């Protein structure tokens, strides 16, 4: 897949084929992409937990909120659609700089693009409870978990639909249950000088 196609394919997926596991080799390649992410002042204050154990994956799933633009009974994966793998991203609060969120975004892009190149979908979930994640994943007190990424082989399609600035940008499901993600047109959001 060329880069433009890969970027277009890499959308948020919220329904996965729970019967298809991700190989150890693919997980290792996804995790290897971490070291290629730029970071502010090369602080490397992020830490990662690769959640491969099925029971832990389900425990994390049970403690996340999905698809804020959709009713919970529609946006949350059901049994057979849940992710098979998670990566938790931890921040060392003492080492953070004023670029809060930038380092996370850069590494998330690497992780999700590497997965997408292998046909593995992902969903970035910021609706996590640090206290609950700490109980499940047992990490040090100076770290906090603000985001987890769910992975699995998608059961649905997720495509972009170009819209005008005055249109609603909330994603939704089409009549076949596939995701449509409204995105503003490039010329409406980019000013060239």
From TrEMBL:
Keyword Mitochondrion: no
Keywords for this protein: Oxidoreductase
Keyword Oxidoreductase: yes
Cross-referenced Gene3D superfamilies: NADH Oxidase
Domain of life: Bacteria
Residue stretches making up the Nitroreductase domain: 8-153
InterPro entries in UniProt: Nitroreductase (IPR029479), Nitroreductase-like (IPR000415)
Family: Belongs to the nitroreductase family.
Name of the protein in its database record: Nitroreductase
Species classification: Bacteria, Bacillati, Bacillota, Tissierellia, Tissierellales
């Amino acid at each position: 897949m060329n880069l433009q196609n890969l970027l277009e394919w890499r959308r948020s997926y919220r329904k996965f084929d729970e019967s298809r596991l991700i190989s150890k080799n693919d997980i290792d390649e996804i995790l290897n992409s971490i070291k290629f992410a730029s970071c502010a002042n090369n602080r490397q204050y992020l830490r990662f937990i690769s959640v491969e154990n099925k029971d832990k994956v389900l425990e994390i799933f049970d403690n996340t909120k999905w698809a804020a633009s959709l009713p919970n009974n529609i946006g949350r994966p059901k049994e057979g659609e849940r992710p098979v793998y998670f990566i938790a991203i931890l921040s060392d609060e003492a080492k953070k700089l004023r670029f809060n969120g930038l380092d996370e975004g850069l590494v998330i892009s690497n992780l999700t693009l590497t997965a997408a190149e292998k046909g593995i979908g992902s969903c970035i979930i910021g609706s996590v409870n640090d206290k609950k994640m700490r109980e499940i994943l047992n990490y040090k007190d100076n770290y906090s978990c603000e985001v987890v990424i769910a992975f699995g082989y998608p059961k649905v399609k997720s495509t972009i639909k170009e819209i005008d600035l005055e249109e609603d940008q909330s994603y939704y499901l089409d009549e076949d249950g596939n995701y449509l993600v409204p995105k503003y047109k490039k010329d409406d959001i980019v000013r060239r000088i």
